[in-house]
Write a structure and sequence with these properties.
Elements (H helix, E strand, L loop, with lengths): L7 E4 L3 H10 L4 E7 L9 E6 L8 E4 L13 E4 L3 H14 L3 E7 L3 E7 L5 E7 L2 E2 L6 E2 L6 H12 L6 E2 H12 L2
Parallel strand pairs: 1-4, 5-8
Antiparallel strand pairs: 2-3, 3-4, 6-7, 6-10, 7-8, 9-11
């Protein structure tokens, strides 16, 4: 049996505020919604969101979170196709102002931007880098770097680390190991 990440369910305080951020800034669409208790139509509303037609939802929000500390979820990660996508989102987040703690990090094998949504849930949006590096790793990078500069920076930061190699090599080994 192969398990692939499908969705996250997040307890939220303000459903409308969270739906607005995730649809307007991150590009999700509400795919479904309804009362948490179908027998009681006046119960709290649950909302489902997705960006892909093949999944009913990638996320769901349940408005039951109290005013206390953040949820036990560390972060949710979303993969994009390119560094340009990562940088474009970071610029959009900065311009919008609803996200906080916008932090570009490279893990050697990925170029990421981390941020907190309006209710302090931590999100990572990343693309693969050209390299594989044993994890965990994290180093800051500047959003102003070009792709060539970031590639050189990543190689300089991580080339002496165990298992440093081209990402294609890693994935070829990974496919053999897991049978894909």
């Amino acid at each position: 049996m192969k398990l692939r990440w499908s969705h996250a369910v997040i307890y939220v305080r303000d459903l409308r505020k969270m739906l607005s951020f995730y649809t307007e800034i991150l590009g999700f669409a509400v795919s479904d919604h309804g009362p948490l208790d179908r027998a009681n139509p006046e119960s709290l509303e649950l909302a489902f969101l997705t960006q892909v037609g093949s999944d009913h939802h990638q996320m769901a929000f349940v408005p039951v979170r109290g005013e206390g500390p953040s949820t036990t979820l560390d972060h949710m990660a979303f993969k994009v196709d390119s560094l340009a996508d990562v940088k474009a989102l970071a610029e959009k987040l900065a311009a919008d102002g609803r996200a906080s703690e916008i932090t570009p990090l490279t893990h050697g094998n990925a170029w990421s931007v981390y941020f907190k949504d309006p209710e302090d849930n931590r999100i990572e949006v990343f693309c693969d880098s050209p390299f594989h590096v044993a994890q965990p790793q994290a180093q800051p990078w500047e959003l102003s770097m070009s792709e060539d500069e970031l590639r050189a920076h990543t190689e300089e930061q991580f080339s002496t680390e165990p298992e440093f190699k081209p990402i294609e090599e890693f994935y070829a080994e990974h496919r053999k190991r897991f049978g894909d």
